[in-house]
Please model this.
Amino acid sequence: MKLPCVRSTMILLNRTNCNILYVIDNKKARHEAVMSEKILVVDDEREIADLIEVYLKNDGYTVYKYYNGADALQCIGERELDLAILDIMLPDVDGFHICQKIREKFFYPVIMLTAKVEDSDKIMGLTLGADDYITKPFNPLEVLARVKTQLRRYTRYNVGKESAKESAAESAGIDIRGLHISRDNHKCLLNGNALTLTPTEFDILWYLCSRRGSVVPSEELFEAVWGEKYLDNNNTVMTHIARLREKMSEPARRPKYIKTIWGVGYTIE
Model:
């Protein structure tokens, strides 16, 4: 597979003594952060995995890099991680399987890498619990930006206390006709049954519930949850909403909770 911008960047790094850059940048990063987030990178294309590792390490992250699924699964079971970047096509087990295994025990963000452009692959990944996807070839700076966005969101759900700006009612949770969602413990119950939500799904549902009765435009929802500029052809919100409805056993045509206002956005009444 040809990666014009990625490959040229990799060559440039090698020619400018990449090893020395590692030492300088990482030393600076360690002064800027007490703790380094730990990121799993899995891709059988060594050039891509190595390039992602370069950018992440230069930004101060700890990277566990593997070229196959078996070693990655072992790492998942042995180490505490903050985020995973998984290629879909691997020589032994695919990225979908690894994502599924992660979601059996952990809630940290998962970003999928795919060389395919079919929506079915993207939908499959999101359905299994992935939080984002990136299509190859990519700009490594985009990967870095996506990583930072996902980690910011994940960190919000691991803070022990709520912000003083939040109301007591919000800290206790929101109840809407059998749906209870709480940011205090990052739990969501529907008619007494726990819903297993990814951080992204939880963030979407919380945002809609906190604005109960108001129509939230897709653009606003995307920018609030993902922290990025919304693009007109972006169907990420729609895909996550569909997954949320599936987990809530919502009928597609007449949902009880998350309703679509065509041409505008979504609302919970």
User: Anything to note?
Assistant: The first strand starts at residue 38 and ends at 42. The mean pLDDT is 79. Residues 4-156 form a domain with the Rossmann fold fold (CATH 3.40.50.2300). The chain is about 45% helix and 15% strand.
